[in-house]
Amino acid sequence: MKKLFILFSVLFLFSFVSYAQMQAGLKAGLNIANIGGSDADELVGQSLDSKTAFAGGVFFMYQFSDMFAIQPEAYYSMKGATYSVSGADLTISLDYIEIPLLLKFIIPIEGSNIRPSIFAGPAIGFNTTHKMKVEYSGTSAEMDIPDTKSTDFSLAFGGGIGFPVGSGELGVDIRYILGLSTIDDSSDPWDIKNNVINFNLYYGFSLK
């Protein structure tokens, strides 16, 4: 019985590895970022406006079955928010090196090479910029935002579609990145979180 179990285990692992398909690729896109949380309105006395900014980096996809894949990524993501009142413009800049680990469900379409997918997974971000800029009547001033956490935890989920191009895949995806932890690192932290809608264009190079 033990030998039979080992045999089935070896056959399962062999089929798992033999199916494996891998991609490494580049992605670039657009963030529509804002700051949420129960204390977000207290920052300026009312709701903040969204900020449009850049996101881009690299990804690796390991597809271990015909419908499932794991996709770690690493990219630069510019977040924050804006606010305007009485001729003054405030820009909050919170930039991160973000590393999500996504589980992808690839939706099969019989007789087609088009690859729609949905995905979700956790992400950790490492803060590189935490600044506030105020512009008024042609003059501007910039300062660091104090007590900003060096790490940010979030949950990413969304969907995309890929098309075969050459030996690789060209595609687009859209995702919502929900902040899970406050960005305030003070002794009595406010509940303020990064929230982002992210649009991407990507190209994956086949490794197998």
Detailed description of the structure:
- The protein is mainly beta and about 210 residues long.
- The chain has a single domain, classed as Porin, CATH 2.40.160.20.
- About 10% of the residues lie in helices and about 65% in strands.
- It contains one helix and nine strands.
- Strands 1-2-3-4-5-7-8-9 form an eight-stranded antiparallel barrel.
- β5 and β6 form a beta hairpin.
What attributes does this structure have?
single chain; 208 residues; mainly beta; Porin; 1 helix; 9 strands; 65% strand; elongated
CATH-derived topology? Porin
Q: What is Rg?
A: 21 Å
* Gross CATH architecture: Beta Barrel
Helicity level, as a percent range? under 10%
How many structural domains are formed by the residues? 1
Strand line-up across the major sheet: 1-2-3-4-5-7-8-9
Q: What's the overall average pLDDT, rounded?
A: 89
What would you call the shape?
A: elongated
Q: In terms of structural class, how would the helical and strand content be classed? A: mainly beta
> Can you write the helix and strand succession as a string?
HEEEEEEEEE
Largest sheet: 8 strands, antiparallel, barrel
Instruction: Provide the CATH top-level class.
Output: Mainly Beta
Count of DSSP H/I helices: 1
Distance between the termini: 36 Å
DSSP E strands, number: 9
Q: Report the uncertain regions.
A: 7-18
Instruction: Report strand %.
Output: over 45%
